Amino acid sequence: MDIVFTNTLNAPKEYYPQPASKIIPDWYKNMQSYVNGEKKPLPDSKVFSTIKKCMPVFDSISSGYIIPTPCDIWVTQKKQNEKNIDELQPFYQWPVEGFIAFHPIEQAPEHPNNTGHKISYPKWINPWSIKTPPGYSCIFVQPWHRESVFTILPGVVDTDEYIAPVNFPFVLNDINFEGLIPAGTPMAQVIPFKRDSWKMVFGDEEKNIDQSKVANLIKTKFFDAYKNSYRKTKEYK
């Protein structure tokens, strides 16, 4: 199964998208798997593992593909004399023409992710068009479990039909931030998925017994119970 990334704005090869599994964040790579580095049960028979042993966390970090910023962005605070707002707001500078655009704040004045933007929402202009096979869409999210000074607003796009680049409105996590967002910063995580129709139902007593069996089996293992018994490998190349 192929997902096709096409470079529409001549982004340098140094800043091409990569499988998320190839750029695991340093905090995760450097963390020990067990507290104090000891793989052994505690006196109460529990294993004191760290988040590094949580496969759902690893699977979220390594899912899909990471699109990085293709150039530096410098952020300062200045009065912009718009909309009669007499206070400092973020001001962006970048060396590559057309990398950031803006949405008027009136398009989403009460969005819960708004951290204090009062004039506009900045938007990364994505250099990459994405094409997925028929029946497959993509979810675009802030790269999971990765430190960042900004957060993109998530979205889902049917990339089997809509193959123009998808741009990413974002907010600064700290509206007062000033400094450099370097080229190569993870900008968006792209996760393809197969569209399907779903109907919610509620499990009966039989389903409750089934989940109890799973929970009881997990409790019989000290190490890697979910990983060895239930986790399925996911591949993004």
Please summarize what this structure is.
With 237 residues, the chain is of the alpha+beta class.
Question: Mind explaining what this structure looks like?
Answer:
- There is one protein chain.
- This protein has helices spanning 26-30, 55-61, 205-218, 225-229; strands at 4-7, 18-19, 65-68, 73-78, 89-93, 100-104, 120-124, 128-131, 136-141, 150-152, 155-157, 168-172, 179-181, 186-194.
- By secondary structure, the chain is of the alpha+beta class.
- It folds into 2 domains: 1-19 and 64-196, Deoxyuridine triphosphatase (dUTPase) (Deoxyuridine 5'-Triphosphate Nucleotidohydrolase, Chain A); 25-61 and 203-237, no CATH class.
- The longest helix has 14 residues, at 205-218.
- It is globular and about 65 Å long.
- It starts with a strand and ends in an 8-residue tail after the last helix.
**Main β-sheet, spatial strand arrangement:** 2-3-14-9-11
Oligomer: single chain
Distance separating the two termini: 10 Å
Uncertain regions: pLDDT < 50 for 5+ in a row?
A: none
CA radius of gyration = 22 Å
Portion in helices: 10-25%
The third-level CATH topology of the largest domain is Deoxyuridine 5'-Triphosphate Nucleotidohydrolase, Chain A
Task: Give the secondary structure arrangement, pairings included.
Blueprint lengths: L3 E4 L10 E2 L6 H5 L24 H7 L3 E4 L4 E6 L10 E5 L6 E5 L15 E5 L3 E4 L4 E6 L8 E3 L2 E3 L10 E5 L6 E3 L4 E9 L10 H14 L6 H5 L8
Antiparallel strand pairs: 1-8, 2-3, 3-14, 4-5, 4-13, 6-7, 7-12, 9-11, 9-14, 10-12
